[in-house]
Structure formats: structure tokens, C-alpha cells
């Protein structure tokens, strides 16, 4: 299953959310985390329904927020069947 992580390299919140996401999926080779740098193509991110970063998208379900705590990411992964 592919998990899309929307971010920008300039965002410290994105850095921490990505670290939590990679830590949670480290032991799951069936989960692929794909990074999308929104500054490269902001129009595509908008089409994907991304209005705030950091954001995690699994299928049609999106989690985003000012600060994505590890527990919030973990809950999201469980709700979408990834964990």
C-alpha cells in the first residue's frame, strides 16, 4: 500500500511528521511512503485535496494539521488499515 506524504523541505513540522511516519512504518515492507514536495507542483497538491502541510494521504483519506503528533499519525494508520 502506498502512503503519500505531502511536505516541503522548509517546514520543520513536516520533518517531524515524516520522521514519525517512517518510524511507524519501518517494520512494514508492504507499506511504501512516497514523498511529494508541494513546492514543485502546488496545483497537483491542490487537486489532491491538500490545503495544509504536513499531510498524509492513503487512498482518498487525508490527515493534515499544524502539528501531526506521533499518536495522531498512528491512529490514522490504524483507521486506514495500515497498522
Description:
The chain has helices at residues 12-25, 42-47, 70-79; strands spanning 2-7, 32-37, 55-58, 61-64. The chain is of the alpha+beta class and 83 residues long. The chain has one domain (2-79): Glutaredoxin. It has a 4-stranded mixed sheet, covered by helices on one side. Helix 1 (12-25) links the parallel strand 1 (2-7) and strand 2. It starts with a strand and ends with a helix.
Gyration radius from CA atoms, angstroms: 12 Å
Uncertain segments of ≥5 residues (pLDDT<50)?
Answer: none
CATH class, named: Alpha Beta
The helicity comes to 25-40%
Q: In CATH terms, what is the fold-level topology?
A: Glutaredoxin
The number of domains is 1
> What kind of sheet is the major sheet?
4 strands, mixed
Keywords summarizing the entry:
Glutaredoxin, four-stranded mixed β-sheet, 83 residues, 3 helices, alpha+beta
Helices and strands in order, then pairings?
Elements: E1 2-7, H1 12-25, E2 32-37, H2 42-47, E3 55-58, E4 61-64, H3 70-79
Parallel strand pairs: 1-2
Antiparallel strand pairs: 1-3, 3-4
Amino acid at each position: 500500500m502506498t502512503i503519500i506524504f505531502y511536505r516541503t523541505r522548509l517546514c520543520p513540522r513536516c520533518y517531524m511528521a515524516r520522521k514519525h511516519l517512517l518510524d511507524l512504518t519501518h517494520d512494514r515492507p508492504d507499506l511504501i511512503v512516497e514523498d511529494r514536495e508541494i513546492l514543485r507542483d502546488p496545483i497537483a497538491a491542490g487537486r489532491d485535496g491538500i490545503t495544509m502541510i504536513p499531510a498524509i494521504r492513503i487512498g482518498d483519506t487525508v490527515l493534515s494539521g499544524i502539528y501531526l503528533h506521533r499518536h495522531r499519525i498512528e491512529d490514522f494508520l490504524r483507521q486506514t488499515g495500515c497498522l
